[in-house]
Amino acid sequence: MTLPPDHPAIPTPKVGVLLINLGTPDAPDAGAVRRYLAEFLSDRRVVEIPQLLWQPILRGVILTTRPKKSAHAYQQVWTPDGSPLAVHTRATAHALQQAMGQGVVVDWAMRYGNPAIAEKLAAMKAQGCERILLAPLYPQYCAATTATANDAAFAALAAMRWQPAIRTLPPYHDDPAYIAALKASIDRHVAALDFVPDALLASFHGMPERTLHLGDPYHCQSVKTVRLLREALALPVHMSFQSRFGRAKWLEPETEATLARLVKDGVRNIAVVTPGFAADCLETLEEIALRAKAVFLAQGGEKFALLPCLNASAEAITLYQRLMGRELSGWID
Fold first, then answer.
1. 14-172+315-327: CATH, from 1.10.10.10, 3.40.50.1400, 2.30.30.100, 3.30.420.10
2. How far, in Å, CA of 67 to CA of 32, rounded?
3. What is d(CA 69, CA 286) in angstroms, rounded to the nearest whole number?
4. In angstroms, rounded to a whole number, what is the distance separating the alpha carbons of residues 286 and 269?
5. According to the model, what pLDDT value does residue 1 have?
6. Residue 211 burial (C-beta neighbours within 10 Å; 0-12, 13-18, 19+)
7. How far is CA 104 from the centre of its chain?
8. What CATH number does domain 176-306 carry, 3.30.470.20, 3.40.980.10, 3.40.50.1400, 3.30.70.660?
9. Per-residue model confidence as pLDDT tens for the chain (333 residues)
10. What is d(CA 265, CA 86) in angstroms, rounded to the nearest whole number?
């Protein structure tokens, strides 16, 4: 059929993969951090307090005092190419694009900050992506991470007249390919250390304990990841949760307290891995590599190393190629 001369151009149909990570300020200064925190901490899945109670606290005390402190933390890990999280997520998307080939369009977005999920979905649709796999890069499912990333994507789709078909990447906390990627990465980085660790600590981002009782599987999936790592690795593997905020009771044991306890138990040399993070970020590079290290050494520890996240490593790309290939079954050969 011949199209009329004024018919809009229709791109060749394509399949897309959108990698999604948490987010980052645009710059390591108080103004950019304030804008980022305002968006992040206004998410009802992140802070499950009635907005009438929460917003005055957020707009008052928190956004008045926290941005300057957080900006200082970001300044300690910022790179010439920008935020570490953005740098690694972008590099992962580029490497995965090369691995997947021209039959799939791979892009990346942030749940909070830039590039926004809605912006990237619109761009992929404009390129002809009629089928898109949303891939939040969170191995363990959490409502405050995986679910809110999907929420933002679905909200963007609600504004589209011609929506693409959508699939979502499920959690992969116990996927053999994920455990194999972690083991290969950990073994490689431990072999490069100038000391032999007495133990390995797996530190996960913390969540309020009430989320477990409300049915969030994050804690259980994190525990299973650690169990599988213990079975795969030669080192003893301990577990903890970091990044507490506010006065609520959080998942335990807490990372810094665990490090202090391990020193008392005779652990003098330790390596820390963060299996809940796909890419290095403020929480790994500042909170663990700087602050947690200082606690460990102050307690009498001797050697401390943060092992890198999977980032855009060969192990990561092999993992994502397998995960995405499986989820795209029937859409691509």
1. 3.40.50.1400
2. 8
3. 12
4. 19
5. 64
6. buried
7. 22
8. 3.40.50.1400
9. 677 777 677 788 999 999 999 999 999 999 999 999 999 999 999 999 999 999 999 999 999 999 999 999 999 999 999 999 999 999 999 999 999 999 899 999 999 999 999 999 999 999 999 999 999 999 999 999 999 999 999 999 999 999 999 999 999 999 999 999 999 999 999 999 999 999 999 999 999 999 999 999 999 999 999 999 999 999 999 999 999 887 789 999 999 999 999 999 999 999 999 999 999 999 999 999 999 999 999 999 999 999 999 999 999 999 999 999 999 999 997
10. 38
User: Is 284 within 8 Å of 21 (Cβ atoms)?
Assistant: no
Sequence spans of domains, the chain: 14-172+315-327, 176-306
* Token digits of residue 213: 């009782």
Q: What is the 3-state secondary structure (H, E, C) of the chain?
A: CCCCCCCCCCCCCEEEEEEEEEEECCCCCHHHHHHHHHHHCCCCCCCCCCHHHHHHHHHHHHHHHHHHHHHHHHHHHCECCECHHHHHHHHHHHHHHHHHCCCEEEEEEEEEECCEHHHHHHHHHHCCEEEEEEEECCCCCCHHHHHHHHHHHHHHHHCCCCCCEEEECCCCCCCHHHHHHHHHHHHHHHHCCCCCCCEEEEEEECCEHHHHHCCCCHHHHHHHHHHHHHHHCCCCEEEEEECCCCCCCECCCEHHHHHHHHHHCCCCEEEEECCCCCCCCHHHHCHHHHHHHHHHHHCCCCEEEECCCCCCCHHHHHHHHHHHHHHCECCEC
Q: Which residue has the tokens 């004024």?
A: 6
The pTM of the full predicted model, rounded to 2 decimals, is 0.95
